[in-house]
Amino acid sequence: MNKSSGPGSFLLPLCRIGLIAGILFLSCKGPHNRKDAGNESILAMPPFVSLTDSIRHSDPGGLAGLYFRRAELLSKNNFHEIAANDYQRSWELRPEENTGLRYAATLSITGRTVDAVSLLQDCLKKFPGNSSFASMLGDIYVQSGRLKESLGLYDHLLEKDSLNFEAWYEKGLLLEKARDTAGAITALNKAWSLQPVNTYALELAHIYAERGNPQALQICDEVLSKDRNNELVDPFFIKGIYYSNSRQYKKAMDQFDSCIRRDWKFTDAYLEKGIILYKQKNYGEALKTFQMTITVSNTYPDGYYWMARCYEATGRKDEALMYYQEALALDKDFSEARDGIKRLKI
């Protein structure tokens, strides 16, 4: 008997026929259909399947909530594109504030900036009292380089309500990014006068500190006087920045040490303290201080960069080159680290 005529001889050809048929079927489906099929398969898997079943069997009145819950779960599992579809369905069925915010944020995450802007503009009309929509729209404008439109947005809000402290605060942050320091100070002062919270006070104090304005100290001391639990670290850090910019290095070091005593993981405090030691050419102590920054966070590019500076200053070029390269690997846009590498290679 020929071996190919046995009972199993038809199995392989039949399997091949089935496989080829499956491939032909899939190849006939367009990219959009394949994507939809992929989405459906994800939604049929745990942890989404129970909500998917509920959606299939739900009455129309409960669909908006179920779509929203599934969108939240999808977002937590990084399926943002599928989540956007569910947020859209929930929004279309029941356009609520929270749904609009989550939907807009997801559109932004997935790169659908134009759609996000359109949705947020619609939300501003529907919910004029919710400043979160204006804040998110302003952020998208800033990220897109549309500073004028962002400023116009806050100016419009303030024309309608000059006591809108959140709009003053957001405008202040925007002006700070636009390097309009005087305008930022005016806006933040207004926000703080309307709503005297620490966030507004410390943002304003930080700008003053960077400019060497002693008003930074006054604001920080006022905030610290209300810190009954002795938990705040930012006021000490800002005071340290002021003293450092004023070349009062001993006082600056005391403030940075106060930060570290309250929070030993405050990397920026180690960094600023190390920079002072570096300026004083105390490279050994500076290096130890910069080493603490990467002990706290081994993905902190500034720590590696300043360690490289210490090594370069003491003639240890191999170590310097290695740490410059580490800083650049962590931050591809770290131009100073790139310059250090070029300098040492030359």
- State the helix count: 20
What is the H level of CATH, i.e. the homologous superfamily of one domain? Tetratricopeptide repeat domain
Q: Mean of residue pLDDT?
A: 89
Q: Which series of helices and strands comes N to C? A: HHHHHHHHHHHHHHHHHHHH
- Report how far apart the termini are: 79 Å
Q: Count the strands?
A: 0
Q: What level of helicity do the residues show?
A: over 70%
Structural class: mainly alpha
Topology overview:
Layout: H1 11-28, H2 31-43, H3 49-57, H4 60-76, H5 80-93, H6 97-109, H7 113-126, H8 131-143, H9 147-160, H10 165-177, H11 181-194, H12 198-210, H13 215-225, H14 234-245, H15 249-262, H16 267-279, H17 283-296, H18 301-313, H19 317-330, H20 335-345
Helix pairs in contact: 3-4, 4-5, 5-6, 6-7, 6-8, 7-8, 8-9, 8-10, 9-10, 10-11, 11-12, 12-13, 12-14, 13-14, 14-15, 14-16, 15-16, 16-17, 16-18, 17-18, 18-19, 18-20, 19-20
Please explain how this structure is put together.
77% of the residues lie in helices and 0% in strands. With 346 residues, it is mainly α. The chain has a domain at 281-346: Tetratricopeptide repeat domain (Serine Threonine Protein Phosphatase 5, Tetratricopeptide repeat, Alpha Horseshoe), CATH 1.25.40.
